[in-house]
Amino acid sequence: MLCFLVLTGLTTVHAQQIDEVSNQKIREYTTDKRFLPSSVLNLPEDPKIPSPRKHFGDIIGAPGVEHRTTEIYAYYKALEKTSSQIKVQQIGTSEEGRPFQLVIIANESTIGKLDHYKKQLALLADPRKIGSQDVEQIIADSKPVYYLNGGLHSPEMGPPEMLMELAYRLVTDKSKPITDILNNIIVVINPVAEPDGRDKQVDWYYRYTKSRKVYDDGFMRSAPYWGKYAVHDNNRDGFQISQELTKVANKTFFDWHPTVMHDLHESVPLLYISTGTGPYNEATDPMIISEWETFAHNDMTALAGQGLPGIFTWAYYDGWYPGYLFWIANNHNSIGRFYETFGNAGANTYLRDLSKSALAGDPITSRQWYRPNPATEKVLWSSRNNINFMQAGVLASLTYTANNQSLLLHNFYKKGINSIKKGAEEFPRAYSIPKDQHDPAMTAFMVNQLRLHGVEVHKAESGSKAGDYVVLLDQPYRNLAVTLLSKQNFPKDSRFPPHDDIAWTFGYLYGVDVKPQDSILYNKSDLKLLTADVKYTGKTDGEGTTYVLNYKAQGKVLAALYWLKSQNKNAKISILDAKASIAGISDTLSAGTVVFKGITVTQSKSIAEKFGLDLTATSSSISGKQHPVNLPRVAIFHSWSNTQDEGWSRFTFEQQGIPYTSIDKDDLKAGGLKAKFDVILIPRMRGTASDFINDIDKKYGPMPFTKTAQYPSHGYPASTSDMTGGPGLDGVAKLKQFIETGGTVVAIDNSALMIAGTGIVSDLKELSSTDLFHPGSVVNVKVRKNSSPITYGFPEVFPIFRGIAPLMKVSDYNRDMMVLQYGTGTPKEDIEYDGPIMGMADKKPAKTVQKTSKKDQPYVLSGYVKNDQMIQGEGVIFNVPVGSGHVVAFSFDPLHRYQNLHDAPLVWNAIINWNNL
Fold first, then answer.
1. Residues 421-437: pLDDT tens digits?
2. Are strands 430-433 and 469-472 parallel, antiparallel or unpaired?
3. Domain holding 758: CATH number?
């Protein structure tokens, strides 16, 4: 039949067959006509290309239907087989072996010249490479790339579904708006950004939540694991680029240099279009911020024209933290943006109550300048509603891009020009990374991280500073280099709290000395651009059969010790407990220095080369206080309701090469822990002591997380016949018995408070800190007990990264349990009274002089802390004896997202010295 198609307000004669069955079902599955934009109706009926309805048997958004990755990828393959306007290619493999597929859609001519358009965009990305070429000709012969990313957060199940219908529409619809999209731009789709999590979540939906009748019934809407390591934090991996999905997104960006990177999420009603309330990242080009606004208001206008309620911008998120996945684009002069549609964590239809929801201080149902047509306080919400809103918004964005291709490409090019000019004219002009560092291997790691981000790094090959690394800032990604290497100055008068961490300065997080330069202190002829990753290879000097490693909290020491023991069970390792001087070794050896005996020359060289550690051989006897190292059997505990930080802990241990065993509530209940383990790490978890004891409510049990023929993705990376119940009081008692009989528990952040609340640790209490606001920032801490092995290798004052976490305290008579304190001043509790004493008239005590090796230093080094006087002087780490064992309680997370690698050796110290604390 001949049909008129209305798309984003445009009426076009559409001389092709319409799929009336799909049309009818779209209307049927949409719960309110106000939720049905005209742009999602009139799917074509193509005689050769299979629609989702023909392929799957029902339309996208059908009640009770979700698709696994194999089904989704198979559909794109079916489109590729029948259409010349779509191409599918694998771009990576997940941690669990599932493919990442990339889908490219454009007109047939463009599909045949993809490599050409990639090269054109790569030229525009680096204006220095254009030279004498006419930039206008390059832009005229280029096409914007619009990159759509779906399914990053696995319970946000709509985007992978919607993108299939969008792809079909793009390759079959012959209307002018769609034809313009295909002719003028290249659409790149990552349909399942987290394939491991997608399959776990679909299995979870069919196994548990499809049968739920009420959305807010307290039941877990998310599978306990998504990827092998990361859950929600897979969208906080932008700095580290450590997970396979982030590596894929990073690679996709540098392959395509997309003009727009659009991440599709689900959370707030009914559709949020990102701009953020601010404060905006201080290094971001103002053009990018303006482009966020331009796209947002274009989309809002287009959707308002179709009558959709609940569309808004501004009031959610801030725009400060550049470590989200979509910030790969913003960090590299492109446009990074995201949607949040309203999702039900599956394909059920639920009555949702919006009456108690507020953002930026306003009820979500109130009419505002940023939300001109709000939703009602209750909505009956379906999966199809979600598909409609998301797809209509994306179509509006694609239409804007197609109609403004030249403008967007000019802006992309101009942002690179701006960066190069700022780097040449403004402070800093460069950063130097001196060759002399306490951990040269970590310096090499940081340099490689910068290169992974596309930041150019040079090395001084000659001259007085040979061996230094240099980041010259007259480069296209100057702004990213500045945001990674400079301190963050979060505005103290910010109207709204930040959405995430507010500081990420690489030098502090990695423990590397980085110096901003107002002028370039190097002859450019001495500098060579790095074109490959660097590696620090340690060296072995001296002669003798005893080897010494002067310990400065190098990150790879614990891994080296485990490696050595795996190679040589007879090797003897000891730790110096005080400074020492040894004949033939010029440096004074610090407390924590590692002494190796009974190892071969080959093994010493392997330690140096594999782990980037410098050893000195000596024939001198090494006296002085020391203790032998008995490397422990380590377990990492996980609950079933909070697996995120446990995942980062496992990832960090595996990256370091530190062996561990994963345990859960069943292992605690089984007891006999000391026969199996020496150290149990309890990563950060949310909740109270009751949550630790009981975890998932037993009223929902039994809840297996096991691999079956019906649910093949479950049971990994951990398995249980029943997730509910927690370790219970019996499991807690057996954990306490483990400590009392000589075991060590390392409890991190809120988990330390949870453990204290169970009664295992009676000396540790929560310190009220309601007026303290401490978002993720870099702050100074000071060693209180130089004799504690936990701080071996660290100077008296050093930085750590701390986010929002509870404060803890001990009684005044137990303050010697405090190993570290926040800030550098002397707490009032530690200042002895020097006034008169009644009853001792003739014995006025001598005035105590508080000794400090350094003048009090600022508490905040990067970021911002409100009311920091409330935390300064309080405990950072507590070493609490329990029977014959210890609880080492951290009031921050030294294993945070694989970011603050400088802090991790505090944990490694507790493990190395577990039986000598």
1. 999 999 999 999 999 99
2. antiparallel
3. 3.40.50.880
